[in-house]
Design goal:
Layout lengths: L1 E4 L10 H16 L4 H21 L4 E4 L19 H11 L11
Antiparallel strand pairs: 1-2
Helix pairs in contact: 1-2
Length: about 100
């Protein structure tokens, strides 16, 4: 799991550098347990998705979760949609001494 902050979201510049960072992260992570061609394809897919999302939405950051499973009965849940408010509430419940604000600024 890795979080990438979109440093240029506020400046109005293109976010291709964010997409490139994610491409490198995904392809490098998957190359340790996959073939180089598959790792490159996964990186390219992540890059393409991020380019599409940043064209249509203002993206502050991206959480990338890379997982590998070899169990023959493993299931893939796609797409995996996370609710940010629920994640914050879960964090606050788990770490009451280190809470995060859920108020919009």
């Amino acid at each position: 799991i890795n979080y990438f902050r979109n440093e240029i979201a506020k400046s109005g510049a293109k976010s291709s550098s964010l997409a490139t960072k994610i491409y490198k992260y995904v392809s490098t992570t998957y190359s340790s347990w996959s073939t180089p061609a598959k790792a490159q394809n996964l990186g390219k897919s992540a890059h393409k998705v991020l380019e599409q999302q940043t064209q249509n939405h203002e993206v502050d950051g991206v959480i990338v979760i890379c997982a590998h499973c070899t169990h023959k009965q493993a299931e893939v849940y796609d797409p995996m949609v996370l609710n940010p408010l629920k994640a914050l509430h879960a964090w606050n419940a788990t770490f009451p001494d280190d809470t995060l604000s859920t108020d919009k600024k």
